């Protein structure tokens, strides 16, 4: 009987190094009262340390039946109202957020052995906020978002380039044009966890949680 193909993958995975670089210090006792302040501190440290694309985050959603899906996207903003990202409301994540307006988000900064996990309800922006976000994008980004067909089946690969050119033409004709499908989403965290890895597996996990938006944040350490 031939050996299972997965054996080679398992050996490959087992041989890969983890926590190969220097990990920054983290003292949870001195962490701020609210997670947004700590997120900004860690984000600035990641930028200064040269972490690649630290604004990229994996966002998980689920459909009405609870089946999950996840993808990596770019964080647009973070403030006291929540963590913002944008997409077409007709995309898979847009449809799932319409059915089930909640999500989880995770940032992974491998070079620093850090993760930040967020979970909570998701609110859609006002028409004015949606338009402002779209108009702040580059011309190429706006052209790519004009068609509203993201996640739809694609029969002709050349149609993507044609749609892009059509989008550029529409923007040139009216630089203020905004597709009705474009939406700015804001994840309002009810839970935020900051995870600092350690080469000897003495990881640190600090969790912030609250029961409602108006509640004060509670802080607690978790077993790694």
TrEMBL record:
Presence of keyword Flavoprotein: yes
PROSITE patterns documented for this protein: PYRIDOX_OXIDASE
Known EC number: 1.4.3.5
PANTHER family xrefs: PYRIDOXINE-5'-PHOSPHATE OXIDASE (PTHR10851:SF0), PYRIDOXINE-5-PHOSPHATE OXIDASE (PTHR10851)
NCBIfam families xrefs: PRK05679.1
Organism phylogeny: Bacteria, Bacillati, Actinomycetota, Actinomycetes, Streptosporangiales
CC cofactor: FMN
Annotated organism of origin: Nocardiopsis endophytica
Listed name of the protein: Pyridoxal 5'-phosphate synthase
């Amino acid at each position: 009987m031939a050996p299972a193909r997965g054996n080679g993958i398992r050996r490959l995975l087992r041989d890969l190094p983890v926590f190969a670089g220097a990990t920054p210090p983290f003292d949870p006792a001195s962490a701020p009262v609210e997670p947004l302040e700590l997120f900004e501190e860690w984000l600035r440290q990641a930028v200064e340390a040269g972490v690649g694309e630290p604004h990229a985050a994996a966002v998980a959603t689920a459909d009405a039946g609870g089946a999950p899906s996840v993808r990596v996207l770019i964080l647009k903003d973070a403030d006291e109202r929540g963590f913002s990202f944008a997409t077409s409301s007709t995309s898979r994540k847009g449809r799932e957020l319409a059915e089930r307006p909640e999500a989880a988000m995770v940032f992974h900064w491998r070079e620093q052995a850090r993760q930040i996990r967020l979970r909570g309800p998701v609110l859609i922006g006002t028409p004015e906020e949606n338009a402002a976000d779209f108009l702040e994008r580059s011309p190429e980004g706006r052209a790519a978002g004009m068609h509203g067909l993201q996640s739809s089946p694609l029969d002709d690969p050349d149609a993507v380039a044609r749609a892009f050119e059509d989008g550029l033409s529409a923007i040139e004709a009216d630089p203020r044009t905004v597709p009705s499908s474009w939406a700015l989403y804001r994840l309002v965290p009810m839970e935020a966890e900051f995870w600092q890895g350690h080469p000897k597996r003495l990881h640190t996990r600090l969790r912030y949680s609250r029961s409602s938006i108006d509640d004060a944040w509670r802080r607690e350490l978790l077993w790694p």
